[in-house]
Amino acid sequence: MTEMDPRLIVALVAIVVAMLLGLARAMLGPTVFDRILAMNMFGTKTVLLIAVLGFTTGRPDFLDLALVYALINFIGAVAVLKFVRYGNLAHAEVELESREEDSG
User: Fold this and answer.
1) Alpha-helical runs (H) found in 29-60
2) What residue numbers bound the domain in which 14 lies?
3) pTM score, two decimals?
4) Nearest 5°: phi and psi at 8?
5) Per-residue confidence in pLDDT tens, the chain, 104 aa
6) Which of 19, 78, 88, 96 is most buried by its number of CB atoms within 10 A?
C-alpha cells in the first residue's frame, strides 16, 4: 500500500472542517434561508470530498457519484426554497398570478 501525499491529507482535513462549520451554521440559523444555504454548502463540500477521495484512491468512478450527488443537492435546494417561499411544490405559479390580479 502506498503512502498518501500529505497535501491530500491536509485537503481532506480542511474539507471536513468546512463541513463541520457548515453544520454549525445550519444548526444555529438564525433564519431558514441561512440553514438552507448551509446545508447546500455542506452538500457541495460532500461532493468535493467524494471527488478528492476518488482521486486519492485511484477510483475515477467516484467522480460519477459526485456528479450525481451534486445534481441531487441542487434539485433538493431548489425544491426546499420553493416550498419555503410558496408553502407547496405544485401550484406556485397559480398563486402568484392570483396575487398579481388582486393587487392590480
Assistant:
1) 32-57
2) 6-103
3) 0.74
4) -70, -35
5) 467 788 888 988 999 999 999 999 989 988 888 898 899 999 999 999 999 988 888 888 899 999 999 999 999 998 888 888 887 767 655 555 666 666 65
6) 19
